[in-house]
Write a structure and sequence with these properties.
five-stranded parallel sheet; six-stranded mixed sheet; alpha/beta
Length: about 450
Amino acid sequence: MIRHLKTARSDEARAEDDAKVRSTVEAILKDIETRGDAAVRELSQKFDNYAPERFRLSDSEIETAMSKVSSRDMDDIKFAQSQIRNFAQAQRASMTDIEVETLPGVVLGHKNIPVQSVGCYVPGGKFPMVASAHMSVLTASVAGVPRIVASAPPQNGEPHPAIVTAMKLGGAHEIYVMGGIQAVGSMALGTQTIDPCHMIVGPGNAFVAEAKRQLFGRVGIDLFAGPTETMVIADETVDAELCATDLLGQAEHGCNSPAVLLTNSEKLARDTMSEIERILKILPTADTASKSWEDYGEVIVCDTYEEMLQVADDIASEHVQVMTDRDDWFLENMTCYGALFLGARTNVSNGDKVIGTNHTLPTKKAGRYTGGLWVGKFLKTHSYQKVLTDEAAADIGEVGSRLCMLEGFVGHAEQCNIRVRRYGGRNIPYGAAAEPVTDAAE
């Protein structure tokens, strides 16, 4: 039996919020498309109180920003980037071009080609997401993207030094100081001074996520990365303090960040709820985390591990922290999630910042059909074909001719027929299906 000790806001209420965001974003994107730089400047002034002579940083401005980063912070940024680069390079090495001869004289293959230009958005707001620069810019660089554009909002009226440093060290070719919809919109649509990109990646608030949704199709996107979600799957092998800490560690992202405890121990569930109330009294970010927990927190108690698995796959949370006596069982059997964090020794925060996996992950149940951002998202797998012999051209063409006529595509059939005639030496009537050689002989 599945019991909800605490529930979150209804799906209907969340849908109402989404509708309000949708109309706002639509109007702003239209304005950027129509007026370009002028619209971006007005939006930046309105939302960030920032309207410089130009939004793109020069080399000297980048150097100035980087000079403000302490040696310790610089070392930590470089360490994190080395972990992320190592894993991304291993992922890239697993993706190989192939070529295979499927029939005598018929060669098929595919090539992995980088997206030619990518816009990487790095969120600011209350929390400047330095790590997001590693995750998008650095990963695109490992994939071999030849033009990487990066943008983040200003902090206190100027570029954030650590974010600029992470962008530059990660491999960004162009760095802009723009936030929110105006950043995503200008990188996707282009303006008088910004060439449009083929793809937009990176997390953001509800407005950024909606902007990417509306732009998808005109440009590629990584995924729909909305408000942070976290789920803790736990049994009595861990304690309430650990569960509460892991839930609130992600709830502080924003006032609409879902945090779910899924357990087969009602005692652990109730103890964790009490522990959350205790920690919220001392957590410096409690204003945000408490609102998130109040509106989007859930506590679900199941009788069996199988029920826990069922609920977890249905929710398809972005981050899933598994702390049980059978962590590998969940790894083997879970199918819908953003990323798994297995065992009490690991945690989502390490994944967010330093351990090496990418923190841009699917939200709002998107884990049912996609994984997170990784080097493969920046690569397009393109197929190609070669027919090397006359015999192969005639043999494939004969079957192709009949299949085209089966569907009524006479022009398609003639593409096959002309090759059966030229390379097979056979007289196929125009607009007719090529008959097998044996049938023609009879």
